[in-house]
Amino acid sequence: MKCRFLLAAALAASVALPASAIDLEVTHWWTSGGEAAAVAEFAKAFNAGGDNWVDGAIAGSGGVARPIIISRIIGGEPMGATQLNHGRQAEELIEAGLMADLTELAEKEGWKDIVNPISLLDACTVDGKIYCVPVNIHSWQWIWLSHAAYAKAGVDVPTNWDEFTASAPALRKADIVPLAMGQQSWQTSGAFGVLTVALAGPDIWLKVVKDKDVDTVMGPEYTAVFEAFGDARKLSDGANVQDWNQATNLVITGQAGAQIMGDWAQGEFQVAGQKAGVDYTCLPGLGVNKIISTGGDAFYFPVNEDPEITAAQLRMASQLISKEVQVAFNLKKGSLPIRGDVDLSTANDCMKQGLEILAAGNVLPDGNQHLSQDTSTQLEDLMVEFWNDKSITAAEVQKNYAAIIADAD
Amino acid sequence: MEKTSRPSQLFRNMSAKIASIPMVLTALVIFVGCTVWSFIYSFTGSKLLPKKLFQWEEFAAIPIPTWIDKDGELNFSIVTGIVSKSWVGLKQYDRLWSNTRWITSLENLALYAGFALVFSLVVGFILAAFMDQKIRFENTFRTIFLYPYAMSAIVTGLVWQWILNPTFGIEKIVKGWGFTDFEFAPLQNPDLVMFGILFAGIWQGTGFIMALMLAGLRGIDEDIWKASRIDGIPMWKTYIRVVIPMMRPVFVTTLVLITAGILKVYDLVVAQTGGGPGLASQVPAMYVYTYLFGAQNLGQGLAASTMMLLSVLVILIPWTIIEFGGKEQR
Q: Where are the alpha helices (DSSP H) in chain B?
């Protein structure tokens, strides 16, 4: 009886195996208008190869999606592929052997020679093996300014942070919120990072983020940044939005003057039909330090026992990094491609600025690559509390910041 | 003397006991086992994944001379022992209690608990007392009051988020009436945000409390009302002195239901504010979730959840003793 049952099971398996099209579930948190348009390019390319992209979009940004993705992988119910930010987020999953090793494919296709800057691939590498495919470069270091808002206030569009803060009273007079800021904690923390790189310079920033140097946090350069950030708090009064894309929308509609946000905001302007330089201005490094950080998204492929699925995972990995898909995806997403050998002549002004900075090599690693999720969460909590509770002084928050950095792993 | 063999207590009602084994096992493994596991691992420095508690290790640094063999040579042996590299003692708890976010969460929960308890009990009872006056359309009113309870906390939270939002909620309507200076944005104000959440919570829960109270009031004998009327006792006094003491069991049940609802408040906050503005509306359950999953710090999340369990026990154990322990004497 038992034997017959086994035989039946084996037969069923052998029938299922030769199916050519593989359903691969892909989880990601690209749900805003611009992002969804970009991820559709991935799906199109993958489906064109004869497989089937099963979209597993999780709404609510990385903070919501990441826990869901990770618990599915740990819980033994892995998806076919998933977006994560490369860096330390998947560190332990890789160490536990839950992520597929892509080294063979990477060597065959020569990823080491294609990927630029190479730090992106380094972030995917653990003990000499490659575990993820970087798909884009995202940089935090931007401020987006609304031409409509400045026209209404009757002042020129600022060209750097100082001019921006000087223009704030004029915006207020015209009933415009100077600085749009959403309530998610990563937004405040990210904006603080941007301000630090712009005002204190990348070297000082790296000393803290990479070397975890507490004395630098307490030093005069950081004191100035904390004070500037403290002053900026008042500029977002009246914004009353939660999500980052709602804040971007305030800039698009001219209800707010500016937003400090990564270049993913670009996709929103594009979906709204706005043109860089005409309807909005973007300033890399807040117009002070023209530099971009090279964070970004990467695709990880959880280990799977089914060889058919593993093969499909490798097919997808190869496609994601290919020239055509890189161009199609990044043009929609507003991010920079991870390879320098593609033609992006159709890119808009802002992306071209980014490409120039990238080509000149003025790049920074992303905070994610040096800080663990634990430390990032604590810093995010601290900064969002500071931003919203105006009774906390810059000196207090500086002390707490130093304590977290001292404790960081 | 003839011996009557009486089956031992253990084997009485065998089939019932066998049938309940799966449930007993489930309770033991899931409730007790997992709780103990969480408690133990809250003393470790586990990050995303739980770290091994113990491991064998050779203390190569301290070879101990043990015996001399027949050639007269001294032999050393290396001490092997069980060590724990992940054990961090009370460090997670230390960090927890020095974390402002955790303290804010507790303060928020205390505030919410205090107001929610008093308001839903008082309002629920008053509504029930009104309903009990043999009014017309009682069924209609009961349905209206009970309706919010049929909605999930997420929906309730979203609806109230929209109502309280200054750009398209109450503030906009009042401004539209001509009061242009009117400002009403509780969810955007760190000092008022908990009251905004409280409002939604009470709106959702009171109808249910009213239904429970109404059932209790209907259980009061009509003769008691007649007797108090003959004695000329005013109605409010009858309620306070006679009816409420008689409804003690209903009140206890209601209290337990409300308290359980308060301690698990999470979805309402997520839907209304996401814990913001800043950290102003954080609750303990949110802290646990963030650290378990978002921050990839299992040890910290488990320490927080152990504290939550502890606070429940502190309330629950005395209550159980008072409520069930003294039954024999009554």
A: 14-26, 34-41, 91-97, 100-131, 138-146, 153-164, 170-176, 193-218, 222-230, 235-237, 244-246, 248-263, 267-272, 284-289, 298-324
Among candidates A92, A377, A388 on the partner chain, residue whose Cβ is nearest the Cβ of B277: A388
| Same domain assignment for residues A319 and A390 | no
* Digit-coded pLDDT (tens) for B209-255: 999 999 999 888 888 888 988 988 888 888 888 888 888 888 888 88
| A404–B contact, CB cutoff 8 A | no
Contact call for A373 and B295, based on CB within 8 A: yes
Instruction: Confirm whether the ipTM is greater than 0.95.
Output: no
Arithmetic mean of pLDDT over chain A: 87
The distance of A242 to chain B (nearest Cα, Å) reads 8
Q: Are both A251 and A302 inside the same structural domain?
A: no
Confidence of residue B191 (pLDDT cuts 50, 70, 90): confident
Regarding whether A283 and A151 lie in a shared domain, the answer is yes
CA dist., res. A4 & res. A141, Å (int): 64
Q: Are residues A196 and A226 in the same domain?
A: yes
Of B273, B278, B297, the CB nearest to A385: B278
Task: Say whether both A238 and A384 belong to one domain.
Answer: yes
Which residues of chain A have a CB within 8 Å of the CB of B95?
407
Q: What domains, with CATH codes, occur in chain B?
A: 91-328 (1.10.3720.10)
Residues A278 and A148 in one domain: yes
Q: Cα-atom radius of gyration of chain B, to the nearest Å? A: 29
Q: What is the pLDDT of residue B89?
A: 85
- Helix A185-199 and helix A161-173: axis angle, to 10°? 130
Residues A289 and A315 in one domain: no
Q: Is B167's CB within 8 Å of A389's CB?
A: no
Q: Is the dihedral of CA B269, B195, B164, A252 positive or negative?
A: negative
Q: Determine contact, residues A191/A177, Cβ cutoff 8 Å.
A: no
Kindly state whether residues A185 and A60 are assigned to the same domain.
no
Contacts of A152 (CB under 8 A, 6+ apart): A174, A176, A254
Start-to-end C-alpha separation, chain B: 41
Q: What is the pLDDT of residues A214-235, one digit of tens each?
A: 999 999 999 999 999 999 988 9
> How many structural domains is chain A composed of?
2
pTM confidence score: 0.79
Distance CA B314, CA B303 (A): 17
- Residues A203-212: pLDDT tens digits? 999 999 989 9
Cα–Cα distance measured from residue B190 to residue B169, given in angstroms and rounded to the nearest whole number: 18
Quick one: tokens of B30?
Answer: 């899931």
**A 86-145 residues with CB < 8 A to B:** 89, 91-93, 96
Q: Which domain holds residue A192?
A: 142-293+371-407
CB of B274 less than 8 A from some CB of A: yes
Which residue is closest to B293 within chain A, CA to CA?
Answer: A67
Residue in chain A lying closest to B96 (CA): A378
